[in-house]
Structures are given as C-alpha cells and as structure tokens.
Amino acid sequence: MDNFQTMNNILKEYSIEELIPELNPQQKGDxxxxxxxxxxxxxxxxxxxxxxxxxxxxxxxxxxKPLINYLEERENKNFFDLMITxxxxxxxxLNLDIKKYNRKFIEYRILNExxxxxxxxxxxxxxxPVFKYLKEIRGYSEKFIAISKLGYLIxxxxxxxxxxxxGFSRSxxxxxxxxxxxxxxxxxxxxxxxxxxxxxxxxxxxxxTNISPKYVNSKGFKDTLxxxxxxxxxxxxxxxxxxxxxxSLTYNKDLExxxxxxxxxxxxFVYKSGVLATGGKASLSSQQAEYLKKYIxxxxxxxxxxxxxxxxxxxxxxxxxxxxxxxxxxxIISISSSKDVDELINNFGYNEFESYDSIPFxxxxxxxxxxxxxxxxxxxxxxxxFQKFNIIKEKYVQxxxxxxxxxxxxxxxxxxxxxxxxILRDKKEKLFxxxxxxxxxxxxxxxxxxxxxxxx
Length: 456
Known about the structure:
Blueprint: H1 3-11, H2 16-19, E1 26-28, E2 31-34, E3 44-47, E4 52-55, E5 64-66, H3 67-75, H4 79-89, H5 98-124, H6 129-137, H7 142-147, E6 151-152, H8 156-165, H9 177-180, E7 187-194, E8 200-207, E9 215-217, E10 236-240, H10 243-250, H11 263-270, E11 275-277, H12 286-296, E12 300-303, H13 309-324, E13 330-332, H14 341-348, H15 350-354, E14 359-360, H16 361-377, H17 382-396, H18 400-413, H19 416-455
C-alpha cells in the first residue's frame, strides 16, 4: 500500500464535518456545499469519495485543491507529519519507511507545482501557439480551456528553472525527465492524468501540428483512465476514447449561454460526472477494466465509441474485458452525426448528445450482426443469422438481463417451427460434412493402394 492509499484509509475514519468544520460543510446527498477557502463564498463543494475541494465560481475564483493539500496548508505540516497526526487522533498504528515516504511526498509536491506552472504558462501570454490552437483550431472557449486545466510546456529547462525558484532543489527534479524530456520541442499541449483522489499520475502531451505521434505519455506510464478525479459518486460510468471527448462531455460548453439561480443548478448543468476516457485507445483494456471494477465498481457502464470502423470493431474487446471482471450491465451509445463526442458537442451543442439513447450491448451486437448479414447477402439469411445467434449466446450471454434480451431478440426472428427447421438443417449439414470427410479419407486410402500396386 502506498502513502496515498494509507492517507485515504485514514481519512475514511473521519467525517467531512470533523475534518473541515471551519468551511461549514452542509451535506447535499453524496456531496457537501462548503465555504470556499479563497473567495469565502458558500459555493464550493466536495464529494465523499473524491476528496477534492472545488469552487463553482470558476470564472471568478476557480479554487480547486485536494483535501489533503488543504489540510497540509491549514495545519502547516507536510504530508508525512499530517498523516501521523491524523492517525494518532484515531489511534491508528502506522508502520512507515520514513525515507521512502519523504521522497514520495517531495515528488508529489513537485508534480502539483509543475501542473500549476504549466497552466500559468498557457495563460500568461495568450498569443502562445497552444492557446491559439485551442481557441482557433479546436474552437474552445476560454472558460472551457480554464476549467479543463490544460497546460503549456515551454521547455523542460524552463519548467525546472521555475520549480527551483519555488524552492525545490535541482537534483530533486531529475525524475521530471521521464515526463517531459522526449518530444519536448513538438508536443507542447499538456493534459494531466489524476487518480480519483486527485493525485497526479501522468502527464500526456499533444502535438499541435499534424505530426506523428500525435500524443506522447510519460515514460513508464501505466495503462489507466483519464478524468478519474471527476467520477464523484457516479453509479453510471461513461467510457469514451479521447481525452477531449471526456472533457467536452464533463464540462458542458453550453454553460456560457445560461444564467443560474443557485449553486445546485450550476453544478447539475455544468457537469456530467463519471465520464472516463481510455486515453486514445479504441477499446477499454483489461487493466482499465480491472481498475474500474476494483476502485469504482459501477452499476452500469455506457460505452461511446468513435464513429469509425475501429471504434465499432473494438467495442467487442471492451465488452469482453468488462465481462471478464464481472461487469455485465453494459450499454452502447452510437453517435452518427460526427466522428466523436468532442466534435459532436463542439459543432452541434450538448443537447445533440443528449438526444442519443443508450441501448443494451447485446441489442447493439445483434443489430450490427443483422446489418452485416444484410450487406453481405443482400437480404436476411436466417440460417446464417441462427449461427450468429449461437455464437453471440456462447460469448456474451452471462447474466439474467442479457439472457432476457437474447431471448427477446431470438423470438423476434425465430418462431419454434423455423428454429426447429434450421436446427434440423444444421444437423443434416454437419452430418453431410462428416460423411464427406470420411469418404474423402477412404478415397485417399484407395489412391494409396492403387499407387502401391502400380509401383510393385
């Protein structure tokens, strides 16, 4: 167990009211409304499972900080000392490697400060190439860019010099080479990967010109999901492909056209919580599925593939990986008017996305197979369709709800008489196939006998 997991286990022993009484937390279901530590307005909030304090006055305040960092500042203690104090108050025994914990704590502070510098780089001079790319090429508003916390890497040396000016020793910054040294001249747009507690785990960078590779990860980066810090207490998880798909779906761009009566209305309109990206992969990997099950355990997963051949093809892999970890309630949203979620929302608005309905994955697979048979055969070949139904049942029907959907669709296309007729036909064809194989074997033996007689 690492130091952050240890700290989060300790925090679970405390209520929000115990930890931050000075912010006057008021429970609203699965989150709390707070007084913002910076602007003082009663418009900040924190979720029980994410433990990140955020002010909803993003264009006027924009305060956002993990609860751990807030407590460090309030108590004037480093991570290690804060953890010991919180554990002692609850009579929790800790067995800690002090040297290891101190090193990890320093790296944690450096990564957080690095993100702040990269964000400031983007806003200090709006004529920089990354800001122009986001506004002019991708069409994002300044408010959207701000709340997405995108960054600009001027250079690795520039980043290190600014961190030294913040008080860090130059030798403590060597590990940043794994994050930023490769492709630093071309890949300047920075996206930050965090876990569900707000801990930075990776920086991913994008080229703003048409070069390959389009994206680069930190070296040694583990396969994880993007936007985990915004899952909150979501029971429904949306899985998209790209990071900008996740950002566009999480932060509703239509918010600038609206006025709001209160904080709850702002929160509900701005966010669609629980949106995660596979990080540009067309399918959800087995490692990502395992993480989803272990740390989030959603009631339902909705897959939203890109509108291309790769997106549709790799849906099958995502479904398989989810079922392998015990997630069976899976639905699909197929967008048709754009190539992906980001383009859809950017071109047509958030309401266009909301017009799409999700359908159970088994229904989606059956519909796809029916369309494929029609395209290949010109019309619906019931015998081929029957074989496809058998394959689908064997591969994907692993829960009661999927059994129900399968039966409903099967009965739509096959009454008992037709099913019996196809089964008999299938048995006959298998029998004839076996007979053909046996006759072929006899024929080959006969040929060998004739050739031997001729040889003698």
